[in-house]
Amino acid sequence: MKFRAVIRDSISIRDFFNIITTLSKCGKDFIFHALPDRLVVSVNTDSPHTALPMWCDLDKERFFAEYHMEGLSQTHNGIILLMNSSSLLRGLSVSRQTTYFVKLKLMNKNMACLCVEMEVPSSEAVKNRSISHDVPVTVVSKRDWKHYELPKLPHFGMVLGMPNIRVISNIIENMKSSSPVMSVRTAKEGTVSFISESPMAKISCHCREQEVVSQGEDEEVICRIESKRLALFLLSSQFLSSAMRCSISAGHLVR
């Protein structure tokens, strides 16, 4: 098995660091799914330290300057790695500075590891400085792949745009103490509502005139979610200026 990926674009390097930072706040263990067309980084939901299931799809053409992987076989062309999230985050910490490239490579140095290599400017103008960090990994055998399948998403009844994530995060953080469960409702006229109810009060936040990305036949779609989990997801995100969408599968899932 072989895996090698290189990120050269400065924006992509910054985004990759922010992705790993965001996911590391939701769990202590990562799963790397290296596939022929993409890399999927997810929080290991089987770990006792997982606070919130999250994952990120990284398309090889759009995100990586170089991407090469060889799986177990043509039939099972994939690689699954388990690793500690804080170890990977430490390895990438230098990329917060000016970095010319970030290289990820699966290697065997007395044990399996993901080598994180970066090139950064040196105080000496003659030559750049190369930094590498080995992250210990566990290569999942084929017989255990069934325990680490990629998330399967249901049909979403409605998908709407959202206001700035910083604004929503502050509102949900203040609402979460009123009730352990919160209702998220989307309506076809472009309204996203967050509703928290208790025996003493009902608190609602309505975000109107949002972009309607897609919708089914229903006038509105509602799902209930744990207040603390929603607050944690919004608080952990490092992409405060990015566009956000709310997708709801009625009574089942909020994405």
From TrEMBL:
GO terms for cellular component: checkpoint clamp complex; nucleolus; site of double-strand break. It is found in: Nucleus. Keywords: Nucleus. One of its GO terms (biological process) is mitotic intra-S DNA damage checkpoint signaling. It comes from the Eukaryota. The keyword Cytoplasm does not apply. InterPro entries: HUS1, HUS1/Mec3. Gene3D superfamilies: 3.70.10.10. Belongs to the HUS1 family. This is Putative checkpoint 9-1-1 complex hus1 component. It comes from Phlebotomus kandelakii. The lineage of its organism: Eukaryota, Metazoa, Ecdysozoa, Arthropoda, Hexapoda.
